[in-house]
Amino acid sequence: MIPPLIVDEALRKGLHIIAVTDHNAVGNAAAVMEAAVGSGLWVMPGMELQCQEEVDALCLFDTLEQAQAWEAQVRAVALPFRHDAERFGPQYRVDAEGDFIAEDDSFYQGPAQIPLEEAAAAVHALGGLFIPAHIERPMKGLLGVLGLWPAQLRADAAELSPNLRPSAARQRFRLPPELPLITSSDAHWLAVIGSVMTIFVLEGPPSIAELRRALRGEGERRVVVP
Amino acid sequence: MILRDIVTQLDLQVLAGEGALDQEVTGGYIADLLSCVMAGAQPGQLWFTLQTHLNIVAVASLVGVAAIVITEAAAVGPETINRAAGEGVVLLRSAEPTFETVMKLARLL
């Protein structure tokens, strides 16, 4: 999963937009963004946040600066451990060519000690999108952990696991009718990139604002899970 | 056993639901995954958890548990306490971890 291979695979699968969302971390987003320059692929810097309740949520941004500001907030409330490279393998930071820059011993596992609703508000304050991830999963999925969709949660959408159709999810769970549902591949291996996707029909160049408008169905914009 | 007696014997803090302590407790259930609680907990049970999100009130109300017992002195936000008070859900807190709290209860039953 080095940056040029991620970009090549995404283009080969016909994708126009991808997001780099490491667990509680943003450190490798810059390299993928750089690797995609001039390729036509838009790479969003982001994070798969695990919040205090142990619910995962995608946090997506326009700029690296926004994503890094969010990462700083998350690091401030991370669990106080160091990464054990001997037990769990090394964590590398790489450049746009995929070459080694440094080893990172920060602890990115486990929940950041920030409540779900506060995290959503903080991401929105930075201009980002907040999308609870794989919501139907028993562990780390919002519905598994919290049982019910929280009425007060300001989320831009909810992500379903690749094998769950939006129509089936709405039958199985009581979800707000206005809550947009998306799917994404959650690719941890190159081959999985683009295995499922969500089509965002936009009216302008891709940006977080355009994605938000598509999620809200403004104008001719819409989202389609093929 | 009556909930009020358990509160006294286990030295539990009453965060909400003071007016509903004179009910019979039928047993207990321990889980932090609310989907498990919805599927497995029974009315009248004490539900022990570390989860303090607002949704615990809705789930407790849905299942009809006698009370929620937050263990390990976990911090509970005012939204959760206010919602519990508003819905008449008994919200208790133990200073000790779940295991010790439940062991004490087991000796009483």
Please summarize what this structure is:
The complex is a heterodimer of chains A (226) and B (109). Chain A has 226 residues and is an alpha/beta fold. In chain A, 28% of the residues lie in helices and 19% in strands.
Would you report the number of β strands of chain A?
A: 10
* Average pLDDT reading of chain B: 96
By oligomeric state, this entry counts as: heterodimer
Q: Helical amount among residues of chain A, as a percent range? A: 25-40%
**Helical fraction of chain B:** 40-55%
Helix/sheet category of chain B: alpha/beta
Q: Indicate the overall shape of chain A.
A: globular
Largest beta sheet: strand ordering of chain A = 1-2-3-6
The proportion of strand residues of chain B reads 15-25%
Please report the number of helical segments of chain A. 8
Task: Please report the first level of CATH classification, the CATH class of chain A.
Answer: Alpha Beta
How many distinct beta strands of chain B? Answer: 5
Number of domains of chain A: 1
CATH topology of chain A: TIM Barrel
Instruction: Please provide the ordered H/E string of secondary-structure elements of chain A.
Output: HEHEEHHEEHEHEHEEHE
* Topology pattern of chain B, helix = H, strand = E: HEEHEHEHEH
Largest sheet of chain A: 4 strands, mixed
Average predicted local confidence, pLDDT of chain A: 96
Given the helix and strand composition of chain A, which structural class is it?
Answer: alpha/beta
Distance between the termini of chain A: 26 Å
